[in-house]
Write a structure and sequence with these properties.
7-stranded mixed sheet; single chain; Nucleotidyltransferase, domain 5; 606 residues; Alpha-Beta Plaits; globular; 4-stranded antiparallel sheet; alpha+beta
């Protein structure tokens, strides 16, 4: 059995690497005896980007590493004895593990069918609790170099040098050597196994350091670890993809894309995305922002602005120009739809299930995001993409989301009497705001301005944001925001007060460092983070008090989606709405639940 020793800043670490037939159960038992918490890391085959990852045909473990803070064992699962040792320790109910992200947790499930669940602590998650800014650096090498020593960074550099040296000449350009190396470096290469073993040692050493830094808000740690385990469960269970519908919609959308692009090419001789198209628009008097080189910008946002001005009569263009803009907008819209549909089909496993990665602390406010594929970007207003995802046979989907939760949280945090009165009266917030701003005879356009001013102010936006959202002239936008702040002075005062804080501390104790370039966003950080914590509290009650663990299907912003047997749908819908209807500091938090049916998106509303 190969044994490697490394010492950094006086900390001595041993890496055991048994070869085939060399596993020593006695030594293994001695090293792990009394160690309830172990570092865990795995090395896998290369997983193609955008594919099903751990749930596809490319999945597979090369190595499994478990470690104390001083000793690592690097096991090869192809060796029967080492395979049995890995399964044995991972399956022990009393054993706990430390990983960095849930990559290793998913790999263990894929390879061995062992669900670590809440037995796995995630140092990446702890780092995001300590400083939620993405720019702070949350990678394992960065964190260990910051809090421990540079041993893991040096091991990584040695491994990379080894990969470059081993890579065939055709694979040495750019970073191709790295892709080649992860797949082809021998599983017993010293640089590879030392790096692998130290990964497990360092993640175990990092845990107590991060836990000490979490002490001021230690109550959040078990909540976030619990939520991460639920999210990993969603990933493992997966979501059924309606493949026939998805392929049919892709064919239709690709045909519409070609038709729009061909119309532009036939009329003016270039592709829709060509710089020549922007130049053609420019010569025909189309206004808009320009690039640094002076070329007319043609983006989804500029097209939206142009059509808004055309529809309201603020802009007039020749019929041919309008036809070309219509075709260009069709190209933009279909491009995004095509990209989503292709990502669904690529990410599906052989059984037609998607396994999205839910990032439970994605933003600095703690809002979640979904990747591979990015399901949180699918809009309710266009249900065609959501309709690609369906319930399993005999089940239906139930959705529930908070109603205007950020407005309600704003009232609770700011204690604004006018906003509080509107909410307690049960009035439509946007109608009430419109009356305060414009009087009882407000118009539909004024209601839109009032609504946008409300959300814009809560989100930290100003005059420019309101202009972009509504097309209002600067003087009108400025006047509306002045009126809004006068109508809700408590909110304005709260925003000013929060803008002076170097760190936003929410009601739950979450710490959010202010962005020096955007102090006006502090109030929104508090609002958005509080709304997120209200959602997590509701999910916790659903699972722990109502036993709906396996029913969790997805979280999307302020929405929870459950997956239940059809004959239980009515009862669960009422249960879900009851749990999510609550109050916060005297302000009612309301929720609406509905039975979606067999698909996430209903085409009846298209």
């Amino acid at each position: 059995m190969a044994v490697y020793e490394r010492t950094h800043r006086g900390h001595r670490m041993i890496v055991h690497v048994p070869g085939p037939g060399e596993f020593d159960p006695a030594a293994w038992g001695r090293d792990l005896a009394g160690q309830q918490v172990l570092g865990l890391d795995v090395e896998t085959r290369t997983l193609p980007d955008g594919g099903p990852g751990h749930f596809g045909p490319d999945a597979g473990l090369r190595l499994v590493q478990v470690a104390t803070s001083t000793v690592a064992w690097v096991l090869n699962p192809l060796d029967p004895a080492q395979h049995a040792a890995a399964v044995g320790v991972l399956g022990e109910p009393a054993r706990r593990f430390v990983t960095h992200t849930n990559f290793d947790t998913l790999a263990v499930w894929s390879a061995f069918g062992i669900a670590l669940g809440q037995r796995a602590a995630d140092t990446h998650l702890l780092s995001k609790l300590i400083n939620p800014d993405e720019r702070a650096g949350h990678g394992l090498k960065t964190l260990t170099a910051r809090h421990l020593d540079d041993g893991l960074t040096l091991a990584e550099a040695a491994l990379h040098a080894r990969m470059q040296a081993l890579a065939p000449p055709a694979h040495r350009a750019g970073t191709r050597w790295k892709s080649w190396g992860w797949m082809n470096i021998p599983a017993d290469d010293p640089a590879y196994v030392v790096y692998a073993g130290l990964d497990a040692v360092y993640v175990r050493r990092l845990l107590p350091v991060l836990l000490r830094l979490c002490a001021p808000f230690s109550h959040l740690v078990p909540v976030e670890q619990w939520l991460a385990a639920q999210s990993t469960g969603i990933t493992i269970r997966g979501l059924a993809l309606d493949r026939p519908y998805t392929r049919h919609l892709l064919d239709q959308t690709e045909a519409a894309h070609r038709q729009a692009n061909d119309a532009i090419r036939a009329a003016i001789g270039c592709a829709a995305t060509s710089p020549a198209f922007a130049a053609w628009l420019d010569t025909h008097g189309v206004p808009g922002p320009r690039t640094a080189t002076g070329r007319l910008q043609v983006t989804a946002d500029t097209l939206t602005t142009l059509f808004r001005d055309l529809d309201t009569g603020q802009l007039t263009l020749p019929d041919q120009v309008r036809a070309m803009l219509t075709a260009r907008r069709a190209v933009a819209r279909t491009s995004n739809t095509i990209a989503n549909l292709r990502s669904f089909l690529t990410a599906a496993d052989p059984d037609g299930r998607l396994h999205p990665q839910i990032n439970t602390l994605r933003t600095r406010t703690g809002r979640m995001s979904i990747t591979n594929p990015a399901l949180q970007t699918l809009k309710k207003t266009d249900p065609r993409l959501r309709h690609c995802l369906r319930a399993d046979p005999g089940r239906v989907l139930i959705s529930c989301d908070f109603s205007q939760v950020e407005v309600r949280v704003t009232a609770a945090l700011s204690r604004d009497s006018a906003l509080t009165r509107v909410l307690l009266d049960g009035a439509d917030i946007h109608d009430a705001t419109s009356r305060l701003l414009f009087g009882p005879d407000f118009t539909k356009a004024q209601r839109t301005l009032a609504k946008r001013a409300t959300f814009g102010t809560i989100y930290g936006g100003g005059v420019r944001a309101l202009m972009n959202a509504t097309g209002a002239p600067q003087t009108v936008a400025a006047d509306v925001l002045t009126r809004w702040r006068a109508a809700y002075p408590g909110v304005a005062a709260y925003s000013t007060r929060m803008g002076a804080e170097p760190v936003v501390i929410t009601g739950s104790g979450r710490r959010i460092p202010a962005d020096p370039d955007r102090p006006y966003a502090n109030a929104n950080y508090a609002v958005q983070s509080t709304a997120r914590d209200l959602l997590v509290a509701a999910v916790y009650e659903l699972v722990t008090r109502h036993g709906l663990h396996d029913a969790l299907w997805l979280f999307v912003h302020d929405e929870v989606i459950l997956h239940v047997p059809t004959d239980q749908a009515d009862d669960v819908r009422r249960q879900l709405e009851t749990v999510m209807t609550t109050s916060f500091r005297g302000i009612p938090i309301t929720a609406d639940a509905e039975i979606l049916g067999t698909h996430w998106g209903s085409l009846e509303n298209a």
